[in-house]
Amino acid sequence: MRSVAAYAVPALPAAIVVGFFVWFANWIPQTRWQPPQKLTISEAMTPTELATLGATLVRQRGCMTCHTIEPGAGIKGGGRGPNLADIAVRRAKGATGGPASLMEYLTQSLYEPSAYLVEGFSNIMPASTAAPAKLNYEEVVAVVNYLQSLGGRPSVKIGDIPRPAGIAAAAPAPLAASAADPKALFNSLGCAGCHSLEAGKKVLGPSLDAAGIRQAAAARKMSLEAFLGEAIVDPKAYESKEFPTGVMPQDFGTKLTAAQLVALIDYLTGRKP
Description:
The chain is an all-alpha fold. It has helices at residues 4-27, 47-60, 87-90, 102-111, 137-149, 182-188, 210-219, 224-233, 252-255, 258-268.
């Protein structure tokens, strides 16, 4: 029989190599992912401190899905929404026919984003107190301060702007088109701001070409009508991992009549009414 040494000697180099890699793996600094922690905001915070928290909120809550901060790129920038760079300079006097100050303009933009639309942009932004941002009052104040800091100086303290309950709820905007004109209906709902009708062309949401819709419906083992109906009136039921979640408005089920919904489904599938 062979001695223990006869087996141990050939195995020694392998043990040394394994030991080295074990040591090396433990020597590398270890990191652990942590979900974003809830930010604590107090009335004692200064506008500058609130602006710092606001910068974090803007990135955590999905605002940068549509907006960009690109100095020197103008209002358009490269986003689906206006470029926020130097917004404090551009809106120092509020908006013509609307809020007369920067603070009032920014507050209205967060509570009632459809009240004033920058030319060239669709009405696709939900209120910041609704999904996906779901900002509470203190967080709104922090974001207002952060936006003020983009070209200006934060100046708002908690209590300086009205709370959401003090803002009259905006009535649903009347649809600009009827079921007889589904293309105009598609555009009036702001769908074109996030979806393309061309195959393979991705914007903020998935392309809505007829062939792609059929393929997506088949993948979910649903009829074309059921798939599109669910996607329009209950978009949270299924959200592709390829695209931002919680962005599509959740109120189409109450804004659309049955005839309008059917007409929109027919339009998207390429069928004539």
